[in-house]
Amino acid sequence: MLVVNQIADTAGTLFDIEEEICVQHTDGRERNFKILRARQRANGTPLPPERQQSVVLKIPNLSSKEADLIALSFRHELELLCNLKRQEHIVECYGHGTLAHDQRTPYLVLRYVDGQTLKEILQSTTFSCYQMLGIVQQVTLALHSLHQFGIFHCDIKPSNVMLDYHAQKVVLIDFGSARTPEHTSSLGRARTPMYMAPEQDNGICDATTDLYALALVMYEMLTGQPIYDDAEWERLKHSSDLAVLSEKLAQNLSAVAPQHARGLADVLAGCLLWQQGQRRYRQAHSLFQALLDAFV
Ligand SMILES: Nc1ncnc2c1ncn2[C@@H]1O[C@H](COP(=O)(O)OP(=O)(O)OP(=O)(O)O)[C@@H](O)[C@H]1O
Ligand SMILES: [Mg+2]
Prior knowledge:
Elements: E1 6-8, E2 14-21, E3 33-40, H1 49-52, E4 55-60, H2 67-83, E5 93-98, E6 106-111, E7 115-117, H3 118-122, H4 129-147, E8 161-164, E9 169-172, H5 207-223, H6 233-236, H7 242-253, H8 261-272, H9 284-294
Antiparallel strand pairs: 1-2, 2-3, 3-4, 4-6, 5-6, 7-8, 8-9
Helix pairs in contact: 4-5, 4-9, 5-8, 7-8, 8-9
């Protein structure tokens, strides 16, 4: 529950808090970060246009038992987002600072994405093939721009993909688990194992593991059910047989995409093969092209 309505930083910047977004995880777990919608006070000097709008303050919860890990993941996200070349489908970072009332605690200022996460949307509806395609096109553009610099998101899942209704675009958020050429070791932050490729358990995270997770998100967008809810999946996720995987996916997709189930299943299976390596899709744009081909 939010108890303050203003936040100041050590440099004297003042924010009016408008709303606390996502107070708790749906399963009641404490959040690692406070996510606040806020507006910066002008304090005499005119603000740049992006700061005249609502922004998001992302603040690590350093009173958590996992404070060291959270702080590490936050520092990593901050460095990455503040140095990243601007990309339309990656959340924009406007700056960072340190809280005045607790000088140990840093915060990030992000563009406020005026919309919903795929996770929120999927609670009440599913997507048609064409809607899914439009969203995945934008996610693959974001991933392509990261992957070409050796950056891997490593936590692609429905709650980290947002639809910005105001700007009418898809935005990728949450870079606390990302790998960069400078940070190649696992940050060990609790991620969502359900969307992770099996080899991510061993700390492997690369372009194919981001595309693996994206395939699971696509499946869920179409069917409304996470694939891990399917009892057979636990066994199948260790299959390196494309035909077996594709057959299973086609069965599940046939009700929601009867005309395209086979083609879509082949593409998803090409992301979800157990064996990491050459046989999986490695490039975000090849994956999207294959999806398009599945529709002709
Ligand atoms: N820039 C933003 N604009 C609007 N909402 C946002 C923004 N950033 C985060 N959120 C909301 O806050 C939620 C949590 O943000 P984020 O994923 O960055 O934190 P997290 O604690 O790492 O989350 P999780 O562990 O659930 O992945 C998002 O799922 C989204 O609903
Ligand atoms: Mg998240």
